[in-house]
Design goal:
By secondary structure, the protein is of the alpha/beta class. It contains 11 helices and 8 strands. The protein has 2 domains: 151 residues, 3-Layer(aba) Sandwich (Rossmann fold); 92 residues, ProC C-terminal domain-like fold (Orthogonal Bundle), CATH 1.10.3730.10. Bound molecules: NADP nicotinamide-adenine-dinucleotide phosphate.
Length: 266
Amino acid sequence: MNVLFIGYGRIGSAIGEAWLATGLVDTISAIDPFQLPDLRATRYVDLQALAQQPFDLIVIAVKPNKVCSVAASLPDAICKGAVVISVAAGITTQTLDHALARRCPVVRAMPNTPVLVNAGCTGLYADARLDDARRAQVSQLFDSVGRSYWLGQESLLDAVTAISGSGPAYYHLFTEALARAGVLLGLNPQLAQDLASQTALGAARQQTQEHTNIVDLRSAVTSPNGTTAAAIATFEQDRALRRLIEAATLAAYLRSQELSAVNLDI
Ligand SMILES: NC(=O)c1ccc[n+]([C@@H]2O[C@H](COP(=O)([O-])OP(=O)(O)OC[C@H]3O[C@@H](n4cnc5c(N)ncnc54)[C@H](OP(=O)(O)O)[C@@H]3O)[C@@H](O)[C@H]2O)c1
């Protein structure tokens, strides 16, 4: 499979280099103004050298405000037979389709930054033109950098953005706060951070084991009148933590909807 990336920054290169490493794709041609060292993709500064080359997949991984101009400028010969995947936040398939003048089936992907360590989580939505074989191919590619999930409605990508797209930052904030609490209890800052981060990793590994019930996991470490119970009672007082999380994710969800609405006008 030959893949073209337009934009090979943080997200683009993390995904592309992982695809090359797993052998799922044969070649990656990457257009990006930046020359990054140690990349396996072949880098080009513009499309000129590739103008007659066909690709199976074109991944657009530039900032959202550049997606439409990039899509519109793709030459017909490059688009022919290709599926276009956009990872840009807030650019709807309708907007992308319009910019591409309906030349290719389009997929919208919402990955998150843990794709950088092959533990990402990607929400996917495709228009009706994507056939089953191509759909399976796209799943396999995104599963190689974590896990992928197809959505039945595009609007659900706003919820995916609020939960997993922005989610790594929530966990980082929780770890930061937990480490800070450790310092207040007398631990040195490095040890406090190591304890908080390693605990996040351990908890995530337990949560992602098959047939795991998260409430059971919590109950198993919460003996009546024990130390964990004392902390959980504080979190649960007036549903304080849950209410905060619901309010925070609603804010992210509404912002994602707002950005999609703005980008529809591009
Ligand atoms: N970071 C995340 O957590 C995350 C998660 C999900 C989705 N995304 C989406 O992924 C996209 C890329 O984000 P990122 O964090 O990877 O950004 P990034 O590191 O800035 O990467 C984008 C790259 O594309 C280059 N570029 C700009 N215009 C170009 C053009 N016309 N042709 C070719 N390359 C061009 C940029 O160069 P210049 O810097 O010179 O412009 C930059 O190197 C965004 O649309 C974002 O919404 C990001």
